[in-house]
Predict the structure.
Amino acid sequence: MKLKNKFYERIMAMLCWSAALSSVLALLFIVGFILVKGLPHIKPSLFSAAYSSDNVSLMPALVSTIIMTFMSILLAVPLGMFAAIYLVEYAGRGTLRANKSVMLIRITAETLSGIPSIVYGLFGLLFFVSFLDWKFSMLAGAFTLAIMILPLIMRSSEEALLAVPDMYREGAFGLGAGKLRTVFRIVLPSAMPGILAGIILATGRIVGETAALVYTAGTVAQIPKNPMQSARTLSVHMYALSGEGLHVNEGYATAVVLLVMVIILNIASAKSAKKLAGGA
Amino acid sequence: MKCFEIEKLNLHYGDFHALKNICMNIEKENITSFIGPSGCGKSSLLKTLNRMNDIAEGCRISGDVKLFGEDVYGDMDVNMLRKRVGMVFQKPNPFPMSVYDNIAFGPRTHGIKSKYELDKIVEKALQDAAIWNELKDRLKKSALGLSGGQQQRLCIARAMAVSPEILLMDEPTSALDPISTGKIEELLLHLKEAYSIIIVTHNMQQAARISDKTAFFLFGQVIEYSETESMFTMPRDKRTEDYITGRFG
Amino acid sequence: MTSIKEKVMSRVFLLSALSTVLALALICLFLFINGIPAMAKIGAFSFMLGKEWSPSDTPPLFGILPMIAGSLYVTAGAIIIGVPIGILTAVFLSKSCPKKLYKFIKPGMDLLAGIPSVVLGFFGMAVIVPVFGESILSASIVLGIMILPTVTGISESAIRAVPQNYYEGAVALGAGHYRAVFKVILPAANSGVLAAVILGVGRAIGETMAVIMIAGNQARMPVSLFKGVRTLTANIALEMGYAAELHREALIATALVLFVFILVINLGFAALKKRIK
């Protein structure tokens, strides 16, 4: 019996360690592979301002990615933050007064967060591109992505607001501050690191998104002069390169750039979340 | 002179009848203590005076509360009421911002923008709360870095910065050590010259030390309300006697 | 004046919250008004259960059973690969991992979660496809890696949420560390772990780009683990660019089917969450 127990412990320990090891190895292998294949091909010519079939510069895509991120964030953050303020500060707290509109909004947000990005892309194509006749444009892409990240922003803002201790609110009310002032001057600033972590996470999703953009923002490799022009982000750029099969090395180089962006965003998000944990 | 007149006040939280038919007048420029065991309704009554109960779920109130003759639950603006009736909470709750901004939050809320005026108010409030000397060099530092006692005195200063007429204190020293408690009691005795103070306390000695009048609460009712000295020397009610001699509570 | 501002802003907050409802309503509306007529024209039965997808034939055939099967196969494969490793990794991270190691592995898993799917697809094309071909197996491996951090992250928090005294109780009875973890803690966390799996399923079934790059995309019933297959998502993404008329509507109807799948998964997830609470 004793021997059997020892054996069980051994086996289970081995299973856990090897599972964790394989997770880590998978990550290291993927990152290492991309870096080894991609780093040698990061050349100044890849960052030249114009894209041509001879020089598949990733610069236009890089610029478009940044613009696209800003546009989507600008659209989604106020909406998501305000929605969270409604849920946490206005609609009655906790589950005590889970009234109908709150239930509806919660269920809706959860449903939205599960919809695959290709379905968002299709909707963007049907609604923004065709119905509103925005054509393939940055604007159509940004609106599609904004809807896609809205539940994420909402959820993280909600959690950040819920984490603000009630005694801050009481303190402000006790001084005669109204609800609005309490929310904007006391509650939101305390919740900001958490909200920011959510925004950074959403940025990561935007940077990595492809399926929702191909049929909304299109795939033109240019720096857009206005929001009604089509442009491709880095991820779309990479997808296009992989489809052509001619510029594999440039594809790896693009993957390196994407990877670096993701790493930077992850670090920023962790920093911000830590600040929330330490500050409140 | 009375600051609060309370008439037939009843308060329910959902099904729970927390305050039963309270009638009492509270004197101006005096310290009044509310004592009684946990859940007796003393904090609930305190919170009805500046309508902090409005935030609580399922709270219903009937009866009259008058502040200098004006109906608190009538068409008085809640925010103005809370400016006139300041509150200090059980746990020190400085906002996560600088000492200066904590004090200036109230005045700014009520429309004071001039830097010069705010500076004056902040200094005066901190001096009144007898904490100016300790904090004058760290006005720009976060208030969360202060000790518990300092935080509570900061909160008292913050409440005074909107120049209230009355200060409500909900067990303001229960989270503090004896030395900080002593400092705050000293401060309260000093403040009563200019403010009317109503303090909820768990600590009978504290009530005896600092208050002029004391009200003893039990199960949502006022059992006895009289001069502190007479209550602690000759309680009229048997239950009061049992409580202050430590038989229960 | 303040009270007007308060009123206006509280309306603004409410409207912002309702914007999600508007968005979902629009998405449903556009999927339904475009998808339902197509299904009616093709016939719901021959659309859902038809084994032939050849839009360019005369008459064209729009049966999406191969794609439904494709999605299910690939997702099942991802689950088989990703879930055991994910749960075991979660157990490791929450119960066996030295603190010093945790500081590296945890951000590593977050990084893995953040790697764009095109990058994973690209990696799959370069490393996995040469070994297993453009096939169900290749797609399963890449999707398995993709859902790994999701499964790990959510399982880990579920395991951590189990009160420590369960563990202490088990150990006090003479159970070893791993027996306590696997027989007491993990069962106590089972709803959370199941939620992690469901979320993983959602991610796998909804993934598009990585799958297109490695699954081969043949619109036929799955024949073997080592042969290619096309998923619902791939079907939409591949043909939407040039499809017209009924073909286009059939693709939208495909999205509708996918959408309903996801709804069912979400309902399962919501029911579980209720149980956890």
In short: The first helix of chain A runs from residue 2 to 38. The domain at 46-279 of chain A is CATH 1.10.3720.10 (MetI-like fold). Residues 219 and 232 of chain A are 5 Å apart (CA to CA). The interface with chain B takes residues 92-93, 96-97, 165, 167-178, 181, 185-186, 189-190, 279-280 of chain A (CB under 8 Å).
